[in-house]
Amino acid sequence: PSIDVVFTLRESLKPNKNYMFYCQSCGDIVVDDRKFLRVLPLPSENWSDLVEEWCCHPDPFARSTLHPQHGDCFVGDTFFLLNSGNESHVPKSPIVICKRCKAILGETVSSDTIKYYVTEVIIQPAEGSFSPTPRSQFVQSIVAQCLLELSSAKSTFRFTIKGDNGKTYILIWLLNSDTLLVESLGSSSSHSDFTLFGDILTPSSGPVGTWNAVKVLYQPCIQCRNKELADAWENDMGVHPLKFPSETCLELLLILGLSTTSLPPSLRCMNSFQV
After folding, report:
1. Does one domain contain both 56 and 103?
2. What EC number(s) does the entry state (predicted)?
């Protein structure tokens, strides 16, 4: 997808402009023609763990919660928080699903606050039209943008990919972000500005295309694999957690696995991590 379809996460929303939120899976309208008066970044989800290092008295924020007011949109590492007070229907279930395709879009944080995951919705200006994006390309583009933005802003290069069920699915180590892929595109559609890997199903003949990619090392943690390493990373303050729907975590693991198998056998591992 072009950069017009997949916005950069921190710059996707501007105050006093109208936007549409679409279900990424089916294109159904999730948020219709919404104008935000304030678009504010949220601190990382584990910010409260560091309060004791800065305060010489009991945590003054222990009972505080950050909920958007009417006209607000809060931007987290992997989600958007929206106030739902002006919507006619607020989900009663803790899980927010698409009315058409039943895909999980987010969760209800409170009676007037909804969290939408960045991997499940497409945001476009209200005056534009919806353009479908292949699921695999969208997920890898969004996750790559998350890794790039966080590594730049927080100087962290290790990440745990967690599901909404609290389980750790993948350990990711960002190796570099300046990889240039060169591949025969054939009749393949265009790629996003940042991808974890290229479309491995593209034909071997045709015009040559280039695009930027990020290179990562990873370890799967499903079925208790790499549990000791996962526990060590869990307690390491230098590791940043990223939370997505559990099904999306499995999708990402499949994407990474397909990328690994597309490499020559001698290049698939590095220091016990998969490439």
Report:
1. yes
2. 2.3.2.26
Distance between CA atoms of residues 174 and 213, nearest Å: 11
Bridge partners (DSSP) listed for residue 183: 209
Radius of gyration for the chain, computed over Cα atoms and rounded to the nearest angstrom: 19
pTM: 0.83
Contact 121, 115 (CB under 8 A): no
pLDDT band per the 50, 70, 90 thresholds, residue 54: low
| Nearest alpha carbon to residue 24 among 95, 140, 118, 158 | 118
**Lowest pLDDT segment from 3-12, 154-163, 217-226:** 3-12
User: Do the Cβ atoms of 182 and 203 come closer than 8 Å?
Assistant: no
Q: Which residues are bridge partners to 180 per DSSP?
A: 212
Both tokens of residue 273? 């991590």
Contact 107, 95 (CB under 8 A): yes
pLDDT digits (tens, 9 = 90+) for 172-195: 999 988 777 776 655 444 444 444
Amino acid identity for residue 135 in this structure = R
* Residue 114 CB partners (closer than 8 Å, separation 6+): 81, 82, 84, 90, 91, 96, 106, 107, 108
Whether the per-residue pLDDT at 5 is higher than 60: the answer is no
Q: Clarify whether residues 215 and 167 are in a common domain.
A: yes
Min mean pLDDT across 45-49, 121-125, 244-248, 251-255 is at 45-49
Same domain, residue pair 163 and 94 = no
How do 18-23 and 29-35 pair as beta strands?
Answer: antiparallel
Per DSSP, helices labelled H in the chain are: 51-54, 135-154, 227-234, 246-261
